[in-house]
Design goal:
The protein is α+β, with helices and mostly antiparallel strands. It is 31% helix and 24% strand. A hairpin with a 7-residue loop joins strand 2 (36-42) and strand 3 (50-55). Bound molecules: adenosine-5'-triphosphate and manganese (II) ion (MN).
Length: 471
């Protein structure tokens, strides 16, 4: 091939016609007749293809035959204005090289079935579809925007451990990490597993949250955020839960619950606005193909004030709805945790906008949440906050943390929790305690919202769910 540098398709489509260019990518389709072939080439830089026009008289018959859907090509030719509809420019090929052939019979994406369900069974190849190309690019843009948002605010990116001995949060069932031989587990005299023989000399698991370590960072450098993988062995096969997902957890010293809410709202709006500004081609594609209200929904969120409402007020709204004839699968009364159907009723039916719920019953929330003063007996609440979104339900969970050593210790004892693994955490309250707050945003829940996809398995490249760890 000629010595000329390759240009990405995204840039070619914006280039002025009249120059010699080189494109590399994978063939999406080939059509045409005996004299002329039209090849749609995509390199993943954009959802759009560049059209290659090949005059068959200029090429070997065998070469033309080897160009099939899925094969990889290098093409050199003139960039010319396109007469056909669809794109501004196309390449009139002078040289074509088939870099890698693709067996058209066996290629998994040749199948007529292009449903999202089918594509999950070929997740190793689905990344080459327009849909997953768009999702991967949006996922990348959101990851970048998250780092930019916090960096611009002076937050420090803190890496918290993935292997941990604490399940202090009780956020979910944990995956155990061990090097013990499961066929021959060492036991103590009482018959229990002898974890002193295990790799870390104790029982360890994959983390369900980096929050507790995040608090150590926040009470040292002020404002931190984590952004990493999180693991929950919850056996819930829902369209909103993964066993391995990514979570962003900011934690801020000197923030109360109101500061926390302001930050959470600003954060999500920033991310959605970033997507609208930087990912419009991909959003348009997803909007046209899967969800024609997507872009409108994204726009509406950036311009609206989220509704703030306490748990107790929300229960009253839901009870009134039930009295007026709405039926829920799960009952609601003060003290129960909301199900996704309740969250969605509040967001979609009642308020018609994102909702920030606060002040939950103490008994349904984690031990570290700040306890409200002056609650009626039996009606104790804590300064938790959940951000609820249309179509998704909970997208963020957070709280102001209990800063009082005495109250924190009392709560730990009330719950009968073991303090052995927690002394390091309690030290933050012993030595220079400060009010502080934080929250966790599920990265894939955010992506569900931003892409309009309805199953969380379709916004992560390689989903892990119960009975599925393929690819
Ligand atoms: P849910 O009630 O929806 O199961 P949770 O209350 O257990 O969530 P938190 O412990 O508050 O979740 O975690 C913070 C955020 O992490 C949630 O708001 C959500 O966005 C996300 N998240 C939690 N569990 C999962 C999961 N299994 N898969 C994907 N994201 C999750
Ligand atoms: Mn939660």
């Amino acid at each position: 091939m000629d010595q000329i540098t390759r240009t990405k398709v995204k840039d070619l489509l914006k280039s002025a016609p009249g120059q010699e260019v080189m494109a590399k990518g994978w063939v999406r389709t080939k059509r045409g007749n005996k004299q002329i072939k039209f090849i749609a080439l995509n390199d993943g830089s954009t959802v759009y293809n560049i059209q290659i026009v090949a005059d068959t008289s200029r090429f070997d018959e065998d070469l033309i035959r080897r160009i099939t859907t899925g094969c990889s090509l290098c093409v050199v030719g003139q960039l010319v204005e396109s007469v056909g509809s669809g794109q501004a420019v196309e390449i009139h090929a002078r040289q074509i090289e088939v870099i890698g052939e693709c067996d058209p019979v066996r290629y998994p994406l040749q199948k007529k079935d292009t449903s999202l369900e089918y594509l999950r069974t070929v997740a190793h190849m689905r990344l080459r579809t327009n849909t997953f190309g768009a999702i991967l690019r949006i996922r990348h843009a959101m990851a970048f925007a998250i780092h930019k948002f916090f960096n611009d605010k002076g937050f420090v990116y803190l890496n918290t451990p993935l292997i941990t001995e604490s399940d202090a949060e009780g956020a979910g069932d944990m995956f155990q990490v061990t090097t013990l031989d499961l066929g021959n587990v060492p036991t103590k005299e009482n018959g229990k597993v002898d974890f002193s023989k295990d790799f870390f000399g104790k029982k360890t698991s994959l983390t369900v949250s980096g929050q507790l370590e995040g608090e150590l960072g926040a009470t040292a450098v002020g404002e931190i955020y984590t952004f990493g993988p999180t693991f929950r062995a919850e056996n819930s096969n829902t369209p909103r839960h993964l066993a391995e997902f990514w979570m962003i957890e900011p934690e801020m010293a000197f923030y109360d619950i109101n500061d926390n809410m302001v930050l959470a709202e600003e954060f999500i709006k920033y991310l959605v606005a970033y997507a609208l500004e930087n990912c419009m081609d991909d959003l348009k594609f997803l909007n046209d193909k899967y969800d024609d209200a997507l872009i409108e929904r994204l726009r509406s969120v950036t311009g609206i004030a989220f509704q703030r409402v306490t748990y107790t007020e929300a229960v009253e709204i839901l009870e009134a709805a039930v009295a007026a004839g709405t039926t829920f699968e799960f009952p609601v009364h003060w003290g129960t945790d909301f199900q996704s159907e309740h969250e969605r009723y509040l967001v979609e039916k009642h308020f018609g906008k994102p909702v920030i719920l606060t002040d939950f019953p103490r008994d349904i929330k984690a031990f570290y949440m700040k306890q409200n003063e002056g609650c009626a007996p039996g009606r104790e609440t804590v300064r938790g906050m959940d951000v609820l979104f249309p179509k998704i339900g909970e997208i963020i969970g957070g709280s102001e943390r209990e800063a009082s050593l005495e109250k924190l210790e009392r709560r730990i004892d009330e719950l009968g929790m073991s303090r052995r693994n927690l002394e390091w955490y309690i030290d933050t309250r012993r030595y220079g305690t400060v009010p502080h707050s934080g929250f966790g945003l599920g990265f894939e829940r955010l992506l569900l919202f931003v892409t309009g996809m309805s199953n969380i398995r379709d916004v992560i490249p390689f989903p892990r769910t119960p009975k599925n760890a393929e690819f």
